[in-house]
């Protein structure tokens, strides 16, 4: 009887221990924003792990340094992870730092991962048995490991953000078309369906999202030489030669703020193309080619905001800080902020003067005589009385709610200039077809004097004036930021 009781109690203790452990694991694996509304991701890429290499200790030390220093809520490994035999033992070794620190981790596969005698399906079958792994094989689509990770709200079980993981596959089956493969139509269709479901569940508003994959999209080539791109570019973009259409779908669905890739070890830059950030991670593997220091890209989300901050973490410290949606990187202590002006009795709207004549520069408007004037609810071409040969001069007080660095743009046909507090911020002057120019300025909270000059010469009329900031997604300047005084 006593023996039976002892065995029964022992069994109950073991069962209780299992339930507690499983519950703790489940709670740890749930991705959730903190009470301060933050969620941090560490992107590791291109480990090129070879279990027989002495450099494994350097790679592991780098991962451990990042996990200890940054304390991410999630680690995402974006391809070319275990690239030599024995593959199973290699994956077990790679998983160890995340298991030991109880860090949830996920994987997207690269073009080399299936080379050491293991298929993409077999890799995920192995990964899904490992502690703290939160990825999955996903549905039956091209490749393996197409899945969405939901980040829950800090205050409920409602989904507050989504991370899309794509298999960018390996090499094209038609080398005449492209060497590297791409994300295929069935994968894109899956993403669009998922995105629409999340948007519907969120009362029709797209959820802030990110996308992770190994091979960069061909659109990365549009940002590599942009002045606003942040980071190092030491090699070209080794994307597929064909445009898969994924970027267009990301743009149309309006949820993905940024795409994060690996593959090109000597690139770690980030920039914005068509309102979507495109970023390379930081090479992590000591056995991977490249001259950049090994490390990780960090991404920090803010619950409820369509924004994120990102930076590179290596043994040398932090570098290349970047904010989305502003596209800004700066040392706040070195920024000179323009003070707000003191003004009372303002009313909503922007005052304008309308001119007619053949202008070639906005400067000519200062000498011209207006033929009409008034107040508009926003900055647009609505006051124009003819299609060609006219000009507009808008003046307003721009209300800034939060001190920060702001980026402004004009998209115009023909010329335009934007001034804030008598400082030229955007110079898009001269006769030209529709084009965009932008600039940035640091502003204290409060009212700031805004002036926009514009002229239209012949054929084609466009004027859009926009703003973005650390907490403002790029948008035409809304009417509730514009005020005038009689």
Order of helices and strands: HEHEHEHEEHEHEEEEEEEEEEEEEEEEEE
Catalogue the unreliable spans: 1-28
- What is the name of the CATH superfamily of the largest domain? Metallo-dependent phosphatases
Average pLDDT for all residues: 93
In helices, the fraction of residues equals 10-25%
Strand content range: 25-35%
Q: So what's the CATH class of the largest domain?
A: Alpha Beta
Q: Shape from CA axes?
A: elongated
- Report the count of strand segments: 24
Structural category: alpha+beta
Number of separate structural domains? 3
Radius of gyration (CA) equals: 27 Å
Structure report:
- This protein starts with a helix and ends with a strand.
- It folds into 3 domains: 29 residues; 299 residues, Purple Acid Phosphatase, chain A, domain 2; 138 residues, Jelly Rolls.
- Helix 2 links the parallel strand 1 and strand 2.
- The protein is of the alpha+beta class and 486 residues long.
- The radius of gyration is 27 Å and the shape is elongated.
- It contains 6 helices and 24 strands.
- Strands 13, 14, 15, 16, 18, 19, 21 and 24 form an 8-stranded antiparallel beta sheet that branches. The chain has a 6-stranded mixed beta sheet with strand order 3-2-1-10-11-12, covered by helices on one side. Strands 4-5-6-7-9-8 form a 6-stranded mixed beta sheet, with helices on one face.
């Amino acid at each position: 009887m006593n023996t039976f009781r002892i065995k029964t109690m022992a069994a109950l203790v073991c069962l209780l221990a299992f339930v507690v452990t499983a519950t703790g694991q489940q709670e740890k694996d749930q991705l959730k924003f903190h009470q301060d509304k933050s969620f941090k991701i560490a992107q590791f890429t291109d480990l090129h792990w070879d279990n027989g290499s002495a450099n494994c200790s350097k790679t592991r030390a780098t991962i451990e340094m990042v996990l200890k220093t940054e304390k991410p809520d999630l680690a995402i490994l974006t391809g070319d992870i275990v690239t030599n035999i024995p593959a199973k033992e290699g994956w077990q070794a790679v998983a160890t730092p995340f298991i030991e620190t109880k860090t949830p981790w996920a994987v997207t596969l690269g073009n080399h991962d299936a080379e050491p005698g293991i298929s993409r399906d077999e890799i995920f079958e192995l990964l899904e048995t490992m502690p703290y792994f939160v990825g999955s094989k996903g549905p039956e689509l091209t490749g393996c490991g197409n899945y969405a990770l939901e980040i829950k709200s800090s205050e409920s079980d409602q989904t507050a953000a989504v991370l899309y993981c794509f298999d960018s596959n390996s090499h094209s089956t038609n080398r005449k078309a492209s060497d590297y493969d791409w994300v295929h139509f069935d994968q894109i269709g899956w993403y669009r369906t998922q995105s629409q479901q999340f948007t519907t569940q969120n009362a029709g508003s797209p959820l802030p999202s990110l996308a992770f994959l190994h091979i960069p999209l061909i659109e990365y080539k549009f940002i590599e030489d942009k002045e606003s791109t942040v980071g190092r570019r030491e090699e070209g973009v080794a994307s597929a030669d064909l445009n898969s259409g994924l970027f267009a779908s990301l743009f149309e669905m309006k949820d993905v703020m940024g795409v994060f890739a690996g593959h090109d070890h000597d690139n770690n830059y980030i920039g914005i193309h068509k309102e979507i950030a495109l970023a390379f991670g930081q090479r992590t593997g000591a056995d991977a080619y490249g001259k950049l220091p090994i490390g990780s890209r960090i991404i920090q989300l803010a619950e409820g905001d369509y924004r994120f901050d990102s930076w590179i973490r290596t043994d040398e410290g932090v570098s290349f800080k970047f904010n989305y949606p502003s596209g800004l990187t700066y040392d706040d202590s070195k920024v000179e902020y323009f003070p707000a002006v003191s003004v009372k009795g303002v009313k909503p709207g922007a005052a304008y003067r309308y001119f007619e004549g053949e202008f070639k520069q906005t400067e000519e408007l200062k000498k011209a005589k207006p033929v009409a004037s008034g107040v508009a609810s926003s900055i647009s071409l609505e006051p124009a009385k003819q299609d060609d040969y006219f000009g507009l001069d808008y003046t307003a007080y721009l209300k800034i709610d939060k001190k920060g660095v702001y980026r402004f743009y004009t998209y115009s046909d023909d010329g335009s200039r934007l001034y804030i507090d008598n400082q030229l911020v955007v110079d898009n002057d001269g006769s030209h077809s529709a084009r965009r120019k932008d600039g940035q300025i640091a502003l204290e909270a409060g009212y700031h004097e805004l002036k926009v000059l514009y002229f239209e010469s012949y054929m084609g009329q466009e004027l859009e004036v926009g703003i973005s900031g650390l907490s403002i997604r790029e948008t035409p300047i809304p009417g509730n930021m514009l005020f005038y005084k009689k």
